[in-house]
Amino acid sequence: QSTWGKIRNQSTSMRSGVFALIAIVVCVSNPVGAADGFTPQDKVLFRQAYGNFACRVNSYSLKTESPGIGEHIIVGPSDVRAAFENVATLEWAHIAQASFASLDGRNDEKVLSTPGGDLGEFIQLLEAFTKVTGKVLDAVDVQRVLERYLKVMTREKFFYETDEKAYIRLAVATGCKNLRVAEMGGMKHKREAFLEKVAVPEHIGDPFIKFVAANATDLDMHVEYVHHALAAYHNILWTTPSRLASKLCYLEVKGNRQEAALINIKTPAFCLDQGLAPMVSQQMTCAAPVMVNYPDAVKVLRRELVSVIATMKLVDDVDAKEVMAAFNLIAESNLQKFWGVVGQDLPIYTVEFINSSPLLTNDEQFE
After folding, report:
1. Residue 21 and residue 197 in contact, taking contact as beta carbons nearer than 8 Å
2. E strands along the chain, which residues?
3. Residue 303: which of 95, 47, 130, 138 has the closest Cα?
4. DSSP notation for 253-288
5. What's 147-196 look like in SS3?
C-alpha cells in the first residue's frame, strides 16, 4: 500500500518514484489509457494533446544568463548541449491541453513546467486579481473560482505536487500516521484537521508553493491564498467520484531535491502560434537534475485563468488585461526570488529552439 490509499498500476507511464493519487491519472505523455470515465470526445482530445505532431525546428541557441559560481557549477553548457543534441527527437504538447508540472528535478517525466505547476499559477492569479481590483477573496470565492476553472478549462488535468516527507509530516500533524487523503471524503473531522494543517510550509512538498507559504509577507502576497487554494483543491478531490475530481492530477515525488541549474525554454513564435511547446525532462542531463521553466508557453495557461476570473462578477468591473499584466509581473518577480533562495550560485541557461533552414528562391522551390 502507498500513503495514497492504492498502489498505481505499474504499467502507467509514470516511472518509479512518482506516484498518482488513487484514481487520479498522471499528467504525462500518454494519458489516454487512464482516461476511464471520460467521453469519447475527451479521449480524442487527450490523444491530440501529446506526441502525434511537431513544430518544425532544427536547431537551438544556448545562452548563459548566469554562469554560476565555482564548485556550484555541476551542470555546465556542455551538459545542456548534450541534452539537446538531437532536436528531431523533441516531443511536443498542445499548450492549451497539457498540464503544467512543478519545477522539481525529482520528476523525471517529459513535461511542461512552471513554478508550483498549475496550482502555483492559480495562487498567483488570485494575488494578481487582488492587486488590480483591491478585493481580497475569501475561501468561498476561491473555491468557486477553482471549480469554475475546472469546468471550462481546455487542458486534460490540473496539477498539484507534494513529496513523501511533507506528506508524512502532514499525516503526523493531523494525528493519523496512516492517513490516506483520497479516502477522506466521508470523514468530516479528519478533513477539518487536514485542512487546518495543509498550508503549513513544512507540510507542502511542492518547492515553490512551500516557498510562497513561508515568505508571503516578503513577496507581498496574501498567505491565506495558499491555504484557500489548497483547501479548494482537496475539497474538490473529496467529491470523488465526480467530474471535477477526475480532472485533478495529484503527484507524490520521493527523495531529496538536487537541482543544479535553471533552464528556461523559449518557444519560437511560430510554434506558439500553433499552440505547441516542446516537453523536456527535468532529469535531462547526466550531471544532475535541473529545474525547467517555460516563460512563454505558460502565458497560455495564464490567459485562460484570467479569462475565467474576470468573467465571474466577483467585482463590478475588472480589466482582464490589467490582471494579466499584474499576473506576469508577480510570477516573474516570485521566480527570481525563489531561485535566489533555492538556486543561489547555480547557473541559469536559456534554450531557444529555432528553424535555421534557408529560405528557397522561387526557382529552387520548383526544381
Report:
1. no
2. 18-20, 59-66, 91-94, 100-101, 110-113, 158-163, 248-253, 262-266, 276-281, 291-293, 348-354
3. 95
4. E-S------EEEEEPPHHHHHTTEEEEEETT-SSS-
5. HHHHHHCCCCCEEEEEEHHHHHHHHHHCCCCCCCHHHCCCCHHHHHHHHH
Count of alpha carbons within 13 angstroms of residue 110, beta-carbon side? 15
Q: Which residue has the cell 492569479?
A: 125
By C-alpha distance, which of 219, 164, 217, 27 is closest to 109?
A: 27
CA angle 250, 251, 257 (to 5 degrees): 145
User: What 8-state DSSP symbol labels residue 23?
Assistant: T
Does residue 86 sit in helix, strand or coil? coil
**How far is it, in rounded angstroms, from Cα 97 to Cα 94?**
5
Are 282 and 289 a contacting pair, CB within 8 Å?
yes
Question: Are the CB atoms for 272 and 297 separated by under 8 Å?
Answer: yes
Half-sphere exposure of 36 (CA within 13 A, CB side): 5
Task: Specify whether the CB–CB gap between 74 and 287 falls below 8 A.
Answer: yes
CA distance 345 to 351: 19
**By three-state DSSP, how is residue 214 classified?**
helix
Work out the number of other CB atoms within 10 angstroms of the CB of residue 146.
Answer: 24
Q: What is the pLDDT of residue 364?
A: 53
Q: Show Cβ contacts of residue 220 under 8 Å, excluding neighbours closer than 6 positions.
A: none
Q: Measuring CA to CA, how many Å separate 125 from each of 165, 205, 295, 320? A: 28, 20, 15, 11
Q: What is the pLDDT along the chain (367 residues), one digit of tens a residue?
A: 333 333 233 333 333 333 334 333 333 333 333 345 555 555 554 555 554 578 989 999 999 999 999 888 999 999 999 999 999 889 999 999 999 999 999 999 999 999 999 999 999 999 999 999 999 999 999 999 999 999 999 999 999 999 999 999 999 999 888 888 878 878 888 899 999 999 999 999 999 999 999 999 999 999 999 999 999 999 999 998 899 999 999 999 999 999 999 999 998 899 999 999 999 999 999 999 999 999 999 999 999 999 999 999 999 999 999 999 999 999 999 999 999 999 999 999 999 999 876 655 555 555 5
